[in-house]
Amino acid sequence: MKTPxxxxxxxxxxxxxxxxxxxxxxxxxxxxxxxxxxAITHVTIIQSPGRxxxxxxxxxxxxxxxxxxxxxxxxxxxxxxxxxxxxxxxGFIDGLSHAGxxxxxxxNRDRVxxxxxxxxxxxxxxxxxxxxxxxxxxxxxxxxxxxxxxxxAHVVPHGGMLPGAGALVWLGGRTADDMVLQPQTSFFSTxxxxxxxxxxxxxxxxxxxxxxxxxxxxxxxxxxxxASARNGMKPAATDRVLEAFYPVIDKKMPVLFQAExxxxxxxxxxxxxxxGFPLVVAEVxxxxxxxxxxxxxxxxxxxxxxxxxxxxEEKKDEPLxxxxxxxxxALDKRKTEFTAKYTGQAVAFQKAGVPFGFSAxxxxxxxxxxxxxxxxxAGLTEDQALAALTTTPxxxxxxxxxxxxxxxxxxxxxxxxRKPYFDEKSVVHYVFxxxxxxxxxxxxxxxxxxxxxxxxxxxxxxxxxxxxTEALLTIKKEGAQLGGTVSGDFLPQPVTLTTLMLEGNxxxxxxxxxxxxRDIKVEVEAKVEGTTFKGEATLxxxxxxxxxxxxKPKP
Amino acid sequence: MKxxxxxTLLVMVATLPALGQQTGNxxxxxxxxxxxxxxxxxxxxxxxxxxxxxxxxxxxxxxTGYAVxxxxxxxxxxxxxxxxxxxxxxxxxxxxxxxxAEVAVGDAINPFDVSLYRALAGGVxxxxxxxxxxxxxxxxxxxxxxxxxxxxxxxxRMQGAPRTIKFALGENPTRVHGGGNNIVPRTRxxxxxxxxxxxxxxxAYAAAWDTYQKAKTQKGFRGAPPEYSYRLETLAExxxxxxxxxxxxxRADEIYMMLQVCKDFGIKKIVFQHVNEGFxxxxxxxxxxxxxxxxADWWAYKFEVYYSTAYNAAILTRNGVTTSINSDDPELMxxxxxxxxxxxxxxxxxxxxxxxxxxxxxxxxxxxxxxxGSIEVGKDxxxxxxxxxxxxxxxxxxxxxxxxxxRFDRAxxxxxxxxxxxxxxxxxxxxxxxxxxxxxxxxxxxxFDTIFGLN
Lengths: 555, 455
What we know:
The complex is a heterodimer.
Chain A: H1 3-28, E1 37-48, E2 51-61, E3 64-69, E4 79-82, E5 86-90, E6 92-97, H2 140-147, E7 150-155, E8 164-170, H3 176-179, E9 180-189, H4 202-228, H5 240-243, H6 246-249, E10 255-258, H7 262-275, E11 279-284, H8 291-296, E12 300-304, H9 325-343, H10 345-352, E13 356-359, H11 368-377, H12 382-389, H13 391-396, E14 414-418, E15 427-433, E16 436-439, H14 442-451, E17 456-464, E18 467-478, E19 481-488, E20 491-496, E21 499-503, E22 506-515, E23 518-529, E24 532-539, E25 544-551
Parallel strand pairs in A: 1-4, 1-5, 6-7, 9-10, 10-11, 11-12, 12-13
Antiparallel strand pairs in A: 1-2, 2-3, 5-14, 7-8, 8-9, 14-15, 15-16, 17-18, 17-25, 18-19, 19-20, 21-22, 22-23, 23-24, 24-25
Helix pairs in contact in A: 4-7
Chain B: H1 2-15, E1 26-34, E2 40-49, E3 52-57, E4 67-70, E5 74-78, E6 80-85, H2 115-120, E7 124-129, E8 137-145, E9 163-168, H3 171-181, H4 188-216, H5 230-239, E10 243-249, H6 252-264, E11 270-274, H7 282-288, E12 291-294, H8 312-318, E13 323-325, H9 336-345, H10 351-356, H11 360-365, E14 383-387, E15 396-402, E16 405-409, H12 445-452
Parallel strand pairs in B: 1-4, 1-5, 6-7, 9-10, 10-11, 11-12, 12-13
Antiparallel strand pairs in B: 1-2, 2-3, 5-14, 7-8, 8-9, 14-15, 15-16
Helix pairs in contact in B: 3-12, 4-5, 4-6
Signal peptide (chain B): 1-20
GO molecular function (chain B): hydrolase activity, acting on carbon-nitrogen (but not peptide) bonds
Keywords (chain B): Signal
């Protein structure tokens, strides 16, 4: 009679499961905020560029800004955030981003047999895709952008020449749908070529773009005629790719083109001129000469927040050994001249009278605030920079009735900082996204930064396709700054680090190594915890490798 | 009458300088002027007004405000025209399909390409920027004026120049598509089939559209239009005579084949490029009005081009074929006047005949001979001032003028003429390497990795 015993054991297990299940779930459950009402008091309110209220109050209720100004009564149910010596701004808007957007899984695809006639999706032609299907609120990039004051982003799917429709999202929220502020906001496009299939060149991309557009115009025309009276007509074919163009043809949705280089902008404008669609260009990096042309085309503009990197002088390995000092000086002068053009791009647009926002598609989030300060140093006023982060993008994206300024009735998207935002020492304290409060863990960040002691020797290990490698990273004080060298399996001779930085507890360094006569630049970004660090090395070949560091005990 | 006005307007618009295009005024004084069409004129002045040649003669006076260039002891010739180049464009080969008529290198003009300045230093003022030769029917090419210094791609385009397209015979298309992807064409027969099939489809496409357009005007018509094809639309334009074919070719048999294809489809405008065995079919080329653009003395860089001769240009010329000498290369492009001079050793061409190979004849091949290619009143002021005769080994270009604007001046030649500097990129070293292939397959390095497993 063993059966009852087994049954008893089983039922016991079941009971355990039943009890344990809810218990575990409860532990993970996020608690709702105690109140949806907040009041930031005694705070300097920058309602919009140039519109400032000193020592005022902002009241937030149920996701909206309820009241702004002086002598505003604080509702009894409000959670009060004391804003003495703090500044509050409207949340920033990123004009083009992949933050919170997962990459589609494109692994293990068969080779295309006829490269001249590939399936559209293989050629990067997937305009029917909706970025909402790829949203992931847990993506680290969402949190990182939010931490420096961005509350809204125009996000687009990953892909090739026609990745799909973009959406305006909150940089926060628990589910994919939570994130969406406005779906189907743009028809996203790039000039990206396909990989060894048609179109493999930019001229192929341009031709394909025109052909698809014209085919869509034709298909739409026939579909309209057919819908008006179907009897006696061949049924209109459906085509997801062409149908995705319809709102663009109706001028109800703009084409948002990623156009970084000056020549990209010219090419995009050429397409626009021929086909006549409403145009937004984003992630523009070299637009100083094309601003008037963009203005004439009535295009909306988002300028890249990425700037050319400033590199330390490379002492060894000059690219041209025969170069004289004079030649070198002349080349450096031209380099400086052009670096200034990149940094001064926003000023050029301001002067040309072309309204612009910013986009953070390619810039490292950690560089954004520094780059904004560089752009301001190049001549953009702080008010103009703030406008490009708030009011102007809200207008360009058609949401200035909801976002872009600290005014009653608008959505509670706010950034609260100690010291004005563009001050180097400014710190973000709170960020409200769609009425939800995010407190920045300042104490912890400070503590961790204080704990990090870089000086000394670190054993760095990395997994490469060739196996595990080990290197020695030596960090020393050089004057007031830190400097260092790296040597190891791939580097018999120690190489001086080109850059070395510590931001909070994030260690960044870069160096160039020579392999088989080719210079490979390596950039490492890693989180330091006490005597270890963990992160990733990015090679200029595009490869990424995991790296780990362990500090050697002092001899 | 209405039609008259329309045409007058059309001509006016076509001859207007492109919006914002820079033109210059200038008097070149006391030069030996090599006009190409009207002989050599000693101690002669050339007056340039609004970018056009206004007067050629003795003792001309410059209106106030005109730059005066004393060219005593110098030679002035028309700007050199390179009928085969791949410079000034960012994309060359859409190698993924045997027929890609719809793509156009004019969509990828790069005004920042420093090699354009280097070409100016060699007296070149106009180039035919071509699609590559990976495909039997490649992409459309673009005639560019070397207005180096402009930042706008559109400003390099020679407005009003006829459309041209690249075709290719022989090893390149068969290697890329047959060998690489196991599709037609794998043989020269396959190449011919690809051409004939493409033209047949284009003819049917144009006919289907004509039928549709006519039917559409009927009351109550409710049919569907033929599916739009950018490719077939472009091919149909070739059949209508609106696009000049420039066909990469080497062997006499394939050149003759292509002549037959043209005859069968009523195509009159064709220029053969490279055409190393052109001398074997020179009378046939002449009879059909086909033209030839050749190298002066370069061959044996692959199997299909083992048989050739430095007399090719002279033989073609003597047989009445409009012939030009091209570079297909950024280095060779800088001394096309030397290349032209070689025909005087190999073939004893006259000065005018030799110079026509790099001026008027390529202009004819590009359909722009009404505007450039010789020094005549009314033509574009595209000129080169040479120290010593251009056909002498001592000839050195001093000043190169495009539309009356000095675009190169040897006396003011700066060290760094880059128009755009990418602060993140190191300075590109200039390499003048020995060539072992024609540039027509440029842009395929990637493809060869997969196709042939080569590096």
